[in-house]
Amino acid sequence: MTGQPDTPLPRDGGWAAYTDHARRLSALLKEERASAERQAAAGRDGQAAVDQLTHRVAAQRQHLHHLAATLRLPAPQFGRVAPGPIPDPAEALRRATTAANAADAAAENAHRRAAQPPLLPGFTPLARNALVYSVAATVGTFASLLMFALSPDKDLGRIPLHLVPWSLCGLPALAFFAGYLTISLVGQPRIGGGGTRSRKVGGVICFVGMPILWFIFIAATRG
Questions:
Q1: Which residues are listed as membrane-spanning (predicted)?
Q2: What are the pLDDT digits (tens) for 99-141?
Q3: Per-residue pLDDT, 84
């Protein structure tokens, strides 16, 4: 029976070259496999980072809509932005993360400013309200003194009795409501609550302080 001839074994030098190439091929295959695994891991990490950033941007959008509604501002518009020439996905992801961090910082700053009243935000509520009522009482006192100075009874050496109700009741009431309205409009935080109008303090300043100043003025001018 005639069979195929056996394959001749390579000589020692050929076998050594064969095994050397086989080892190199095996090492190359391992390196390619490791590189592919690294790329796959980087792709998974990148996709996870993109998903996380996408959820973060969606939460930011919802927060901005809520903040705009709370501050009674127009709803923000989110248009599409043309992608920039950034060929490296890692660099693009880094820039997107930086932009998201800046957006969070801006939203936090807006929230912090909205939690403070527009008028004298660095003052405590009591100090701010007392100052507002004091300014209103001072203006009312000057108006009362001006009315007294322009009254014809003053030239006759008499107290203008027709000005007494205004000086003791009318003008203090106007000063109180002017201060109260000012505090209500620009002296209250727009979000977060915690505002106060200090009505008792305003009442003391306007309805007690103004008449005292008026009596002191009358006593000084007649004494």
A1: 130-151, 163-181, 201-220
A2: 888 878 877 887 777 778 888 888 899 999 999 999 999 999 9
A3: 62
The Cβ of residue 103 has, within 10 Å, a number of other Cβ atoms equal to 16
**Overall pTM surpassing 0.90 (yes/no):** no
Query: Which residue type does 165 have?
Result: P
User: Which has the closest alpha carbon to 207: 164, 178, 175?
Assistant: 175
Q: Distance of CA 13 to CAs 8, 86, 146, 204, Å?
A: 14, 53, 121, 112
Q: What single-letter amino acid sits at 199?
A: R
132 and 177 Cβ atoms separated by less than 8 Å: no
d(CA 134, CA 156): 32
- List, as one string, the DSSP characters of 90-121: HHHHHHHHHHHHHHHHHHHHHHHHHTS-SSST
